[in-house]
Amino acid sequence: MLLALCAPAEPAGAPSTPSWSQLTQQQRSILAPLEKDWDRLDPERRQRWLAVAEHYPSMPPERQQRFQQRMHEWSTLSPEEKEKARERYRKIRELPPEKRKELHQRWQEYQQLPEEQRREFRERRNKRGKDQPTN
Amino acid sequence: MNENDLARRIVGRLDRRLGDLSAPVAERLAAARRTAIERYRTRGPQHATAWEWLRDWVTAHGVATRVAVPVVFVAVVAAGVVYWHQTDRGHEAVELEAALLSDELPIYAYTDPGFDAWLQHTSERQR
Where do the structural domains in chain A lie, given as residue ranges? Predict the structure, then answer.
């Protein structure tokens, strides 16, 4: 019993792993970008999406739009990439607003670099990562 | 005279009077006692409350139980705390994921190792 209590918690509001046709109309509307892949997702991922989608109605419209645009991209990432993204986002979220704004500007600048240069930075970081494993 | 002395005197008086009982009365008393014992064996002691049951059970099972009950209680509370903590972390992770997916920065900004390296490179150049 104690082991059962200590088992990893599942997100609240995820009573089962319903197929696409078993979702409510609202859930289908929110998760529409995943319709084609839904029934192939493993139960854990479905429950996770249902839990994440519960936040959708309380988002401002521009956030809702971004959320839906990125769902498919997010579902294609590996668990390691997701964990890395969560970890970085967790740190960035703690920055003061002006620092976050600056980071957004830096991202725009980075996007202006030629692809060749961006690839060099990617390779440099990946090489460093292999030489010196980071946490 | 204290309570014990009084009790002893009452018991002594009752014992002496027991010999004066008629045979039918003694037989009815013996039959009533047998019936009571039989009922106790088949149904066990009746308790008015769960607390009485627990108290009698602990008394019957001795010192080990008196130690085991608090230990089990502490273990259940600890398991509850762990469960609550994990649930809370689960909720936090879900909320974080929803915020990440709807953030102004695209997901790629958090996964592109080149962006990280470029930030480091430019900040080192500015020093």
Answer: 23-131
Cβ neighbours of A124 in B, within 8 Å: 114, 117
pLDDT tens, position by position, A2-32: 444 444 444 444 456 899 999 999 999 999 9
The alpha-carbon gap from A21 to the nearest alpha carbon of chain B, in Å, equals 23
SS (H, E, C) chain A: CHHHHHCCCCCCCCCCCCCHHHCCHHHHHHCHHHHHHHCCCCHHHHHHHHHHHCCHHHCCHHHHHHHHHHHHHHHCCCHHHHHHHHHHHHHHHCCCHHHHHHHHHHHHHHHHCCHHHHHHHHHHHHHHHHHCCCC
ipTM of the complex in this document: 0.74
Residue contact B102–A63, C-beta within 8 A: yes
Contact A9 B93 (CB under 8 A): no
- What are the 10-residue block averages of pLDDT along chain A, 135 residues in total? 45 65 93 90 89 92 93 89 91 91 92 92 80 49
